[in-house]
């Protein structure tokens, strides 16, 4: 409908467009009433490209020539191969037959849903060896059309001027060394600067209905991903947040990046028509920069539901777990009795087969190396012990193994630098009626990977929380009985004890059930969430002293900024009151609060690792006072500026108030004669009272305070 038609229709209905705030209009979930979102038009245009032309068709040559009796068998083999790379359309595989001989010609056409799937299939199967005599030669159908229409006269290609793209790391060069965060409240998604000097946030980019589910930063902070009905999209930049790429995956529910941001994994599940059946799951792996789908995986939710910290529709998430480091070379999936490890060069299994581990229930990668830790529970009613093992990839060599007896459960915790692995082991008592907990501590970088056993002073204490110090050698444990458990700190490095694990100290009776280390170590928040109503204790582990004790009532989330200078606590919309977030300094000083209705997400923008060497960082830390003089002067200037701004604000408010009072006094006097005329010349009651109030009179009066009767005897 043209703009003129809309305006005329609005005039007929008596609607004033200037009074209509479109962002305030909320459609019911799942309905759009024919109104396209900003992205739907683009996806619609793309889909037109997919549905027209031949960009989604490949030609596979050098196939066996077979008779009609073997036609179906060859077709089944081809579908099994090519279904790994996309969805083949119905009747989308065509093998022409020679009418004279009844044999196939030795080639076929395969039509996929999208050009991306066809391109991926072509790249992955060109040169595929079906047998010694048949090696696939795969081309895009459009290539034949292009080659058949090559002009006989050569034309020099046009040189296009170079247009530099936006610097996706520009936000790291902020002169004030600030960090960004993204928040979501109601329909709005906002990217903000954290500006503690101004004691507030500074807007960067805001958009309503930017995503249909949630948003997520990539691990190094380069991209922000949004989810839509048609798929996922990534955005980048310092302040513009332009769309960089889209990834087609209808009704995508979850996404996950590889550590080096090279790949994006998307997840979709579909509920079955029969409640007894498992949900259908489809997972796709995309190249982040090109948008090309590298591989997809399909199956029932049961096939993807083993292990993992969390999930949706019965499947664990993330289904695929990436090896440590930034090369994004390997990723793995835990299945029944197997661990399937894929390499990203071909996106196939290493050695074309999975690692067989009977009854394996959990696995996780080292954060820095290609080492998998896995846990196998007891089998045969306790006759075969449980075990924790370390496996090197790609060699699949077992580096270390520890058998564990009378085990109820195990949970593995890697330290961020990959130097240590802590395994919390819950064991049955002799009576099997209760359990107790302890730790098996692996020193990964030392020769033969020695293992230490750590038991708490009271081994019957329940372990509530455990957390390694990032980039450090210490860890913290909350243990004991609620509501006031103890918090103990340990170190893996002490000269007095020959490198053995040593307890640094214990804090008694703390209102805490969660631990949040600063990303740089040294400082930790002992938090009491949920039933503890947001109790916060900021603790210096170097000095073993409390820096501040405070509270953010009903806090649901706590997240440090990537530099460890500031921390945000939030109350999301699971509570109806006080929705919003508070920013604190590392030592527990409240800097500012931001209240937002229907607030439900806050995430700091991650930073890539520093280019400084550990020696250089240590040198800067030693000479911090020299470097800090410049920033102290800047802080003082900002403080004076804020003080002056506050004074100006108070002065302006006072002047505004005085102007308002004078305005109403003037109006009151102007209307005095009119009021008298309305009352036939009589002064109003209020004015008479005002005149009487101006007269000061002295009035004497007597009051009887008390009366008593006394009998006087004569």
UniProtKB/TrEMBL annotation:
GO cellular component terms, alphabetically, are: eukaryotic 43S preinitiation complex; eukaryotic 48S preinitiation complex; eukaryotic translation initiation factor 3 complex
Keywords carried by this UniProt record: Cytoplasm, Initiation factor, Protein biosynthesis, RNA-binding
In this chain, the stretch annotated as Disordered covers: 674-699
Compartment list:
Cytoplasm
The principal localisation class reads: cytoplasm
- What HAMAP family does the record point to? eIF3b
Q: By what name is this protein known?
A: Eukaryotic translation initiation factor 3 subunit B
């Amino acid at each position: 409908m043209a703009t003129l038609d809309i305006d005329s229709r609005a005039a007929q209905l008596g609607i004033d467009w200037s009074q209509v705030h479109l962002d305030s209009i909320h459609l019911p979930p799942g309905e759009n009433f024919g109104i396209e979102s900003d992205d739907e038009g683009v996806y619609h245009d793309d889909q037109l490209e997919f549905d027209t032309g031949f960009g989604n068709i490949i030609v596979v040559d050098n196939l066996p020539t077979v008779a009609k009796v073997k036609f179906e068998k060859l077709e089944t083999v081809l579908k099994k191969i090519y279904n790994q790379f996309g969805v083949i359309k119905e009747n989308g595989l065509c093998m022409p037959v020679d009418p004279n001989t009844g044999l196939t010609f030795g080639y076929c056409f395969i039509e996929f849903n999208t050009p991306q799937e066809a391109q991926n299939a072509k790249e992955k199967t060109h040169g595929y060896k079906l047998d010694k005599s048949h090696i696939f030669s795969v081309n895009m159908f459009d290539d034949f059309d292009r080659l058949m229409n090559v002009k006989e006269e050569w034309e020099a290609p046009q040189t296009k001027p170079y247009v530099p793209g936006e610097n996706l790391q520009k936000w790291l060069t902020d002169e004030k060394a600030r960090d960004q965060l993204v928040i979501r409240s109601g329909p709005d998604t906002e990217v903000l600067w954290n500006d503690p000097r101004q004691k507030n946030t500074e807007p960067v980019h805001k958009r309503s209905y930017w995503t249909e589910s949630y948003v997520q930063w990539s691990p190094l902070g380069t991209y922000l991903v949004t989810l839509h009905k048609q798929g996922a999209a990534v955005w980048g930049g310092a302040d513009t947040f332009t769309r960089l790429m889209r990834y087609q995956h209808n009704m995508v529910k979850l996404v996950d990046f590889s550590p080096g941001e090279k790949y994006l994994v998307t997840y979709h599940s579909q509920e079955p028509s029969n409640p007894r059946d498992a949900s259908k799951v489809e997972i796709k792996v995309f190249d982040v920069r090109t948008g090309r789908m590298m591989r997809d995986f399909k199956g029932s939710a049961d096939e993807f539901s083993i292990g993992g910290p969390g999930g949706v529709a019965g499947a664990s998430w993330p289904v695929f777990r990436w090896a440590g480091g930034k090369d994004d070379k390997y990723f793995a999936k835990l299945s029944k009795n197997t661990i399937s490890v894929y390499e990203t060069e071909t996106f196939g299994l290493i050695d074309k087969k999975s690692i067989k581990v009977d009854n394996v229930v959990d696995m996780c990668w080292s954060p820095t190396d290609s080492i998998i830790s896995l846990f196998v529970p007891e089998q045969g009613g306790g006759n075969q012990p449980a075990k924790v093992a370390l496996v090197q990839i790609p060699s699949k060599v077992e580096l270390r193994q520890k058998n564990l007896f009378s085990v109820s459960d195990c949970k593995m915790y890697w330290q961020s630098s990959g130097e240590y692995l802590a395994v919390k082991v819950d064991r049955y008592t002799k009576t099997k009626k209760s359990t107790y907990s302890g730790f098996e501590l692996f020193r990964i970088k030392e020769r033969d990977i020695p293992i230490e056993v750590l038991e708490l002073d009271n081994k019957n204490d329940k372990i509530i929380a455990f957390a390694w110090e990032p980039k450090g050698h210490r860890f913290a444990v909350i243990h004991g009985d609620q509501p006031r458990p103890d918090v103990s700190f340990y170190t893996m490095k002490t000269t007095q004890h020959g490198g053995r694990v040593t307890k640094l100290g214990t804090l008694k009776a703390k209102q805490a059930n969660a631990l949040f280390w600063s990303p740089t170590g040294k400082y930790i928040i002992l938090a009491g969430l949920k039933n503890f109503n947001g109790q916060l204790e900021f603790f210096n582990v170097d000095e073993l002293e409390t820096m501040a004790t405070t509270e953010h009532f009903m806090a649901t989330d706590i997240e440090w900024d990537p530099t460890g200078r500031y921390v945000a606590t939030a109350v999301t919309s699971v509570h109806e009151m006080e929705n919003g977030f508070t920013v604190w300094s590392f030592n527990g000083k409240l800097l500012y609060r931001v209240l937002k209705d229907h607030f439900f997400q806050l995430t700091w923008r991650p930073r890539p690792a520093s280019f400084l060497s550990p020696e250089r960082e240590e040198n800067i830390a030693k000479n911090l006072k020299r470097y800090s003089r410049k920033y102290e002067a800047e802080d003082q200037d900002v403080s004076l500026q804020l003080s002056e701004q506050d004074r100006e604000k108070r002065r302006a408010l006072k002047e505004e108030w005085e102007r308002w009072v004078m305005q109403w006094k003037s109006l009151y006097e102007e209307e005095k004669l009119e009021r008298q005329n309305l009352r036939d010349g009589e002064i109003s009651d209020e004015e008479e009272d005002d005149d009487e109030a101006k007269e000061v009179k002295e009035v004497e009066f007597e009051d009887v305070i008390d009366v008593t009767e006394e009998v006087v005897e004569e």
